[in-house]
Amino acid sequence: MTKTTEGSPKKVQRVETAESMAQKQREISVSEFFLKNRHLLGFDSPRKALMTTVKEAVDNSLDACEEAGILPEISVEIQQTGDNRFRVGITDNGPGIVKNQIPKIFAKLLYGSKFHRLRMSRGQQGIGISAAGMYGQLTTGSTTVILSKTKNGPKAHRIGVQIDTRANKPTILAEEEIEWLPTFYPAQPDGAAPVEPVSFKHGTCVTIEMEAAYIRGRLSVDEYLKQCAIANPHLQLHYRIAVLKKENAKADNGKETEGANGAPAAEGNWNTFQRAVHHLPKAPAEIKPHPHGVELGILMQMLKDTHARTLRSALSQDFSRVSDRAALEICEKAGLNPKANPTRIAHQESEALFKALGETKLMRPPTDCLSPIGEEQIIAGLKKEIQADFYTAVTREPEVYRGNPFQVEVGLAYAKPGENQDLGADDPVRVLRFANRVPLLYMAGACAMSRAITGVNWKAYGLAQPKDAVPVGPMVILLHIASVWVPFTSESKEAIAHYAEIIKEFTYGLQECGRQLSVYLSRRHRQAEADRKRSYIEMYIPHLALGLREILALNDKQEQAVVTKLSDMLERTHLDV
Amino acid sequence: MPKKKVVKTAAPDAAPQVVSKQAASEKIQEVAEEIYGDVMKKGRKPSMSFPVRSLANVKYDVKRGHFEILNKTSTRTLSYNTVKTFAQSMRLLATTKNDLLDKDDIAGKREVYYNSKSWGECRFDEQPESDTLLDDIEAMLSINREQLGYIPEERGGDVCGPLTVIDLDPGTNKDIKIDCTKLGTGAWSIPSRVEHLRFQSKAKLVLVVETASLFQRLVHHRYYEKANCILISMSGVPTRACRRFIRRLSDDQKIPVLAFTDGDPYGYCNIYRTLKVGSGQAAHINRYFCVPQVHYLGVTPQDISDYKLEDATHPLEEADIKRAKDALKNDPFIKHHKEWQQALEHMLKLGVRIEQQAFAKHGLNFVLEHYLPEKLKKGQFLP
Fold this sequence. Notes:
The complex is a heterodimer of chains A (577) and B (383). Chain A is an alpha+beta fold. Helices cover 35% and strands 18% of the residues of chain A. Chain B is an alpha/beta fold. Helix content of chain B is 41%, strand content 18%. Chain B has helices at 21-40, 83-101, 109-115, 127-141, 145-148, 212-220, 223-227, 240-253, 265-277, 301-306, 318-330, 332-336, 338-350, 366-378, and strands at 6-7, 18-19, 47-51, 58-61, 66-69, 73-77, 107-108, 150-151, 158-160, 163-168, 175-179, 188-189, 198-201, 205-209, 229-233, 257-260, 294-298, 314-315, 352-353. Chains A and B meet through helix 14 and helix 15 of A and helix 1 and helix 2 of B.
């Protein structure tokens, strides 16, 4: 990017020359760019910054644990340190990080293991956690502190880093070896006395201090973690927040003054989102691109870069689901020699090849590259965090958009009206959106998942639905897309782009769940009707028996026999559900 | 106590069957035993049958002169829809037997309704519910509710004139003589039970009037002396006690009865017809609660022109027209008497109704100085 507009002729009399202009033109570091465009990464408001930081750290921890085959145990601790200042610490029982890598991972943008491969994971670009550290550094001048211990290391490393925003390089401010083990403080599910703390031999803890704001609600850290626990039922998650007590209810003025932080932060209790599934999700495999989704430019690039010597082998080696025979078929369709040099094809006949690729029938992309949550696990996750009466989930078969396999899952939890205070019978249903198991809280309106929900005719399944809107009822809808490359609408990763294939899959998933819901609702309706009748019958039969008893001077046993017999008779004829 | 169920004291038409309290109590027990047997021995849903109580289930027995019930019955089998009514019937039967019959007590209809408030969810929500059920039970047992211990709330009617009623003192059971000419400016009220009354009278006529105000006028001017008649005010449709009283008085003293009501379909088809032949609702007991010997004095549609009262009438309302047409079509009594059909059709043709008080047009006392004497002299009455 150049800054040619600076020093425009209007303002300055002297005329710039090409040479003088060239002196002002210089490279901009990625870090500098993001510093000025922090909203792109989800740091646009203090409230959102807090959530984004937690989200990036938890994503990384989960990815690391799963890749290392460790059942994840994570704690999130948030402490208010000043009026608008919070210290966020995230600890995991992951494999730990080798000392040399620590500074780069936490203080260099676009550094990561996940960008260069087609493999399903939560993080993708390697920006998140470094951006969080950078945000903290920018707003409070603080240092990101990392504690990490690997299984084999005798001691833990404690490293303090800042990011050199010009050079996009880490600056190490402190470095030492200390005795440390990641330790967790599980809370009892029913709020009983906490059990013994649990320590692990390996893990990482990152602490960032930043300007932020903590507000409860649908867009809060609390909600994020709860949803995270739903989509990751194999995760044991501990959470604690300590907020400064406001003196003399100064918050009433709506003005945060200097003296507001007099009282020490109250020590909150640990909250534990219990693990419901005791095995890790299937590890996703890395895959090659599927021919049905590659764009022409990418196809040309792949042909140029291939190690294969013939077109036929290039096709079968570099793409997934292209067998030797299929490669031959593609060549025939395109009218190309299977033994041709791929590099030459790239320059001259790639368009014909591209067309042939699209027309050839191929197997769906392999599904082992995707790791859906799974129907049972979704239900387990919903059950443990959302009190409801009916749960269902559907995992669709994988599909492809632009050559990227993706898989869609939908879950439903329906509470009896009044059963769950959070789910009002007259409120719009609650929608939980996830991409690769990561909760998406913001920008629901722009998301393909919302489009799919409003596009389904929920009235057919027994729910009220205002025109072109989310249905109404005491219900939670969970939507999850798993993909090697999730098409977000922006870098802050909050909404899924409107690909027709994706909306279609979500629609089918929602309809399938909807059908099960309507079966449940009509059965419940019949049941309620039967219950109503039964209680009506049971209300009056004893009076009938009492009348008989009084007239005929029956004894208790005889009276009871009449009640039993009559109830049986009536229920048999009126309550066949 | 003798185990006779029905004790007959007179000819069937002369008085209602007098059923002893014990017999009534045993009858309730029989019903309960049948239900208990159905449930426990036969293993089937119990049911209760009642005679259908409506005009559709009566015929006009000309010989006896009243509505006689036919044999249509409705059966209430225990089901989801009837379980509440069924339970209420059982409890009401139990109360009737244990609290009224066996303890020789009485209760008003409204008291029955309030008594049910102790039954929890089985209680009656409104009094019409308990009234209907009481009528059901009365019909089912074929014992009128007075004999079950239920007393009507409404007053029976007022009496004035040359009549001595011999009643009993409730405390001492000694005779009390009531001279109905020595009641000052008031009148004697017919009690709810009249079977025990005895009469002495030299009157030539019993004149039954609809409205209390006309009754007051006749009493005020001592019309009963002039015409040597017993005056009775019904205040609308006559109660059972009122009907029974007139019947007994007329039978006992051999005095003819004439009715004087408003000239409208309600006066003809409801007040007069009920007085004469009974009602469709209580058809099962009509034979006691009717006055077949009564004749209709007025006001007839013909009187309107005869007495030049055309400008003292009111147009018939829709309900009046409907009532008249309905009676012409469905009422067995009207259908039997051509004169009544003609009268109703005459009224429909005129399109007006006339009140008893309309004679005031010609002077306040025109009714007793001219109308009544002239009508009595003429001696032409509707059947």
